[in-house]
Amino acid sequence: MTPNGRNHFEDWDLYALGVLEDAEQRDMAAHLASGCDDCMQLYLAAQAFVAGLAATSPDTPLPPGAELRLRKRLESSGAIVDSARERVPAPSAWGMATLAPWAVAAVCLFAAIGFAVGTRDARRELRETQRQKAEYEAKLRQQAPPSQIPSSEITPAQVTELQDTIDGLKRELAAAQSAKVAAEQEVKAVKAQLADAQGRSRELDASLKEAEEHRSKAEESLASAHLQLAKAQADAGRLAQASAQNDQIIALLESAPLSQLDLKPTGAARASARVFWQNDRGLLLVARDLPSLPPNGSYQLWFYRQGKPDLVNVGVLHLENSGDGLLFVPPGPALLAMSGALVTAEPGSGSASQPGEEILKVKP
Amino acid sequence: LTGTPEEAKLLARISARDPDALLELYRLHGPRVFSLAYRMTGDRSAAEEIVQDTFWKLWRRPDMFDPERGVLIAWLYTISRNLALDYKRKENRRPFESVINNIDGRVKGAVVPEMAAMADPSMSKAIRNAMNDLPAEQKSVIDLAYFEGMTHAEISERLGEALGTVKTRLRLGLNKLRDAMRGLGRVNR
Q: How far is A304 from A302, CA to CA, in rounded Å?
């Protein structure tokens, strides 16, 4: 009967497998120790069954030389030369003949482990083992004077105890060496990753710099495109305005009745001009053979009118490369009040009230 | 029930302190024990050390194994598994081996017939096939329990499964393995 009242092989399977939690595992161990033979039968069967799971391990051959290493272990333990030793009379000095090989082997192993492992755990284990060994030797000396104890009275259990310690240290050594190799491999891998990351970082820096250059160029191109767009939009505006004005001019010229009046040159220049107008459609001035203007100069049209002021600014002529000038005046009060026209040469982009040099005029 | 006659002779010679008998036994069972140790540690040198320590225990205390109560390979598997778990954990979660040894030393006359099949190396493949026939989730919990030495709770945490689920899968898996082995005609319960 198990501690929890069950008596089933499944419970002992789990116990033998070691999956139960500590408290339950301890309870079942205590129950076995109490002497329940039925449960012991179940447990031994479960132990064997669970051990059978080992057979599911993939077959892996022993490393080369494994048997030789076991043989050396037997030799170093004295097992292989035991029979020969039995033929040799034991030395009279107690202990040294029997204990010395173990002690020497242990000390050598301890030293080897200390140097090879170099870990804190191994050193601590070494110190502890050395302390235990010293206590053990002191206890033996107290129990009997060396000269009274033949070497054959060093019990196998005592030798076994020391050998257990050596075995444990060897396993520690193997584990520490494996850990060291693993750590070195990990360091190597991390270094490789670091170098890789640094390489990628440099590549990324170069890519970033290149991208920034591209961005700068793109911004310049974008600004230039914006400028060109604004210019094109302005040109389009002007063209649209010119187109609308052309439509107005055509409409004026096609209208009837259409009044016209010629302007006469005021000086020696052979320039000529004519105005076409209808009060509802506006006025068009066409001038030809205009004399050259000083730099930045312009020609300006003025209307004579009744009343004050008797001369009003109408606008600046648009000059063609041929020297001809053109100006359209939309219908309005200025046109209705017009009684004559004057074309002047102005130094700049035109004058608001004071006319410059008179070039052409017609005055009623 | 106690294995082959050859095995029994070797054990008798080991008890008589014949080192060559231990080496012969090593040649006989060493590869199987090594396969287990290597499966558990993944480290060839550590696995060899564990196998050597297992046989060394038999050499030092041949009386720890009673051929009247079981099969030697099962005993070797048990010892090497505990050593491998020691290696994996650095220290035993439980004094498992000492419990076994104490019990073995105290109780006499117990008989373990279940794993007589294990004395026959050809049965390993059949046991392996039975394991492979298990559903993956049951095989997984058995692997973690046996080869990794995990408890129910640790398996539950590792797999992210409820504790009850883990226990159920483990019981089902073990029962199926028993049934399969019973089908091999070697295991009787």
A: 7
